[in-house]
What we know:
globular, Non-ribosomal Peptide Synthetase Peptidyl Carrier Protein, Chain A, 4 helices, mainly alpha
Amino acid sequence: MSREEIIARLKTILLDTDERSAAALDACGEDAELTTDLGLNSVGMLFMVISIEESFGVVFENVAIGDFVTVRDVVDYLETRLKETGAL
């Protein structure tokens, strides 16, 4: 799975979380801050993490939701986890 495919799937997850988030992500890109630019609150962040785990088949280990500030942080983490599991 390429970085672009990860981002596309993440956009779908964000759209399910909040339609405004996906539109903001298109405008801001990987440097978009999850809370400030995309408007995710703690509930939105939790929903995003659960959806990511289900969609990508990964488990968030040794990391706190607060460790993710930008979209890039999430994508980088996913790339690492997918490589570890052999899915990438």
